[in-house]
Amino acid sequence: MAGVQQAPAAARREREQRGARLELIGLTKVYGDVVAADQVTLDIAPGEFITLLGPSGSGKTTTLMMVAGFVLPTAGQILVNGEDIAFQPPHKRNIGMVFQNYALFPHMTVAENIAFPLKMRKWSREQIRQAVREVLQLVRLPGFEERFPRQLSGGQQQRVALARALVFRPPVLLMDEPLGALDKKLREEMQLEIKHIQESTNTTTIYVTHDQEEALTMSDRIAVMNGGRIEQVGTPRELYEQPVSQFVADFIGESNFLSGRVEPGDGRFFLVTPEGWRVSIPVSDSVQPGDQVSVALRPERIVIGDGSGDNVVEGTIEEIIYVGEATKFRVRLEHGSWLTVKQPSRLETMRWRRGDRVRLSWGTADAVIVRDGSGESA
């Protein structure tokens, strides 16, 4: 009985120990006059799933490739459990990698593809057979050993690529937009499946994507990149609820942006726009009366047809966009500016028509102070 009880504990300890601590310190890559990655610094806990999120050219893939060893850094360190691997060749880093195009060998079977990194590591035939069988169970592809990549769907190929990256139990797993080629429904299914597999193996993972919904769904934390630098690092909720800059607020979800001068009043702060519109905003130690600031206001935080919030404005609906579970309204305000409103597609929402005069309202806490594009505070 003691042996039966110890086995799960031993397996649990193995999972807990598998993930490595990964530290990127001042990681920089320069190509001529172009700084592709600029002082990228991240401390990734063992077993953490962190996503590098940003548009094309933001430096996320360059950063990933430096960790993988396919790109040598101009400066900086890459520490795996305290050991600097920044200039080690890729095959000595013991890091798993899933590429965007899967990079499966077309002339090899599923079993042979998965076994390839084990053969390179001189595992015995019995060790390979056992490891391949276990990892195929993990990715839910038992019985697919003798199939070739051309006989698999896109989702199945993706699972095989993940199995090959995990089969040698790497302490770190890197994934470069692996779901980009899949249709929306399958992509959403695979997001959850990858996350569940990562959690079950406790493998420290860096995932690269430009899809903000994908990042929000899968990540423990997200590093938003822009122009080679990290703009903000945080949990999905932190980044969505408290973006520090217009770039982050605009890239993750949608936002309305209002700019103006801070004025005090009744123990509160107000943002006074150039048109003279006074908006109640949160009191913050980072701003003082007289400062020029910007705030981000999420469209779903604005209530249409209700005048009970801290801020109430009137406008005319100029455009209605039905997107299934939600409806977007583009509302022109009296002073000529616009607000986008997003509401669940309920019966009361559907009664509005273009040209209707409406009241919009939101709370003080719904307006988040952010830096503008020039990096100015707010």
TrEMBL record:
<feature type="domain" description="ABC transporter">
    <location>
        <begin position="22"/>
        <end position="252"/>
    </location>
</feature>
<comment type="subunit">
    <text>The complex is composed of two ATP-binding proteins (PotA), two transmembrane proteins (PotB and PotC) and a solute-binding protein (PotD).</text>
</comment>
<dbReference type="InterPro" id="IPR008995">
    <property type="entry name" value="Mo/tungstate-bd_C_term_dom"/>
</dbReference>
<keyword id="KW-0547">Nucleotide-binding</keyword>
<dbReference type="Pfam" id="PF08402">
    <property type="entry name" value="TOBE_2"/>
</dbReference>
<comment type="similarity">
    <text>Belongs to the ABC transporter superfamily. Spermidine/putrescine importer (TC 3.A.1.11.1) family.</text>
</comment>
<dbReference type="GO" id="GO:0015417">
    <property type="term" value="F:ABC-type polyamine transporter activity"/>
</dbReference>
<dbReference type="InterPro" id="IPR050093">
    <property type="entry name" value="ABC_SmlMolc_Importer"/>
</dbReference>
<keyword id="KW-0472">Membrane</keyword>
<protein>
    <recommendedName>
        <fullName>Spermidine/putrescine import ATP-binding protein PotA</fullName>
        <ecNumber>7.6.2.11</ecNumber>
    </recommendedName>
</protein>
<dbReference type="GO" id="GO:0016887">
    <property type="term" value="F:ATP hydrolysis activity"/>
</dbReference>
<comment type="function">
    <text>Part of the ABC transporter complex PotABCD involved in spermidine/putrescine import. Responsible for energy coupling to the transport system.</text>
</comment>
<dbReference type="GO" id="GO:0005524">
    <property type="term" value="F:ATP binding"/>
</dbReference>
<dbReference type="InterPro" id="IPR017871">
    <property type="entry name" value="ABC_transporter-like_CS"/>
</dbReference>
<dbReference type="GO" id="GO:0043190">
    <property type="term" value="C:ATP-binding cassette (ABC) transporter complex"/>
</dbReference>
<keyword id="KW-0813">Transport</keyword>
<dbReference type="InterPro" id="IPR003439">
    <property type="entry name" value="ABC_transporter-like_ATP-bd"/>
</dbReference>
<dbReference type="InterPro" id="IPR003593">
    <property type="entry name" value="AAA+_ATPase"/>
</dbReference>
<keyword id="KW-1278">Translocase</keyword>
<dbReference type="Pfam" id="PF00005">
    <property type="entry name" value="ABC_tran"/>
</dbReference>
<dbReference type="InterPro" id="IPR005893">
    <property type="entry name" value="PotA-like"/>
</dbReference>
<keyword id="KW-0067">ATP-binding</keyword>
<keyword id="KW-1003">Cell membrane</keyword>
<dbReference type="InterPro" id="IPR012340">
    <property type="entry name" value="NA-bd_OB-fold"/>
</dbReference>
<dbReference type="GO" id="GO:0015697">
    <property type="term" value="P:quaternary ammonium group transport"/>
</dbReference>
<dbReference type="InterPro" id="IPR027417">
    <property type="entry name" value="P-loop_NTPase"/>
</dbReference>
<dbReference type="InterPro" id="IPR013611">
    <property type="entry name" value="Transp-assoc_OB_typ2"/>
</dbReference>
